[in-house]
Design a protein that fits this description.
354 residues; Nucleotidyltransferase, domain 5; single chain; 2 domains; 13 helices; alpha/beta
Amino acid sequence: MSRPSEVYVRPMSAEEHDWVHRLYQQTTHVGLKSRCHIILLSAERYSVPQIASLLFSSEDTVARCIHEFNRSGLEGILPQERVGRPAKITEEYLKTLLELVESAPRDLDYPFSTWTAELLAMALKERTGLEVSESSVRRSLHGQGYSMQRPVLSVSSPDPEYEQKVERLQELQRRAEAGEIDLYYEDEVDLALLPGVMRCWSKQGQQRKIETPRQNNKQYGAGLIHWVTGKLYWATSDHKNNALFRSVLAQVVEPAPLQPVRKKYIVVDNYRIHFAKPVQAFLDEHQEEIELVCLPTYSPKLNPVERFWKHLRRQVTHNHFFQTMERLMEAVLSCFQDMAASPDLVHRVAALAA
């Protein structure tokens, strides 16, 4: 018998390796994640002592995991039921379950639109012949990191030049990361006295109440973020107009440069204020320095400033009634100032260049 230190995982097919890697990335089961980690490290020819040292585990535990996988495949490392019956969770079962739950039922010719545990169990029986309970389906999905969540509505961009515009953005991002140009993203936000709401800790049965104004008021903000550094520029106004846009745009113009400056590309959406005549006059005046780049229509996910606004709302405008617009704007400006002083934080919340 080979010594534990000489034990390695058997050769795996590409599909088998992908499944182990997927389980490792998605599962919330601590034991299963550890076993997948062992298998993946052993496949990279790490020895049992090396794996045990890396994962703070015993050599016997590592060797036993490898033996179980070599003997039984994926089923050998999956969490087992605590009853005496053999586990019904097989590679085929898990693969089919994940394929089903990631698909729309009607796309598979089922006469319903939403999966329930009962319907998934029925579909699994049809496709694999295995008769599993609803609770087994739930446990399997929970083990893969799934939970019941409310979907969000989305709209696909109808822009006929969507792919070309995305490719140009990607090229500008590469050039910005190489230091050839400066790339910025810009967007506007409505700042309403009416609070937004988000989930918060509340005692069961006692839903928290947030006061609302008798009459809503609004002001507006504009934000501009450097793609590489996370440097933040902002402006606020009583009106959402081209003057607000120009006021934040002007902040990146270098006064009377003594030598040629790097071209600045400003990515904006298709809102009309970005193309007003005063904006065009400003761009004509600084045409050697600034150029606007349009996002595809209906594609807010491509603009990292949208993620910054979500952070701002969570920090300031959600779950709190400020009583007056002056108090709200004080909090908003304070948040702007704090964020501008922490470009690394802006970088993280806006998910900018790696």
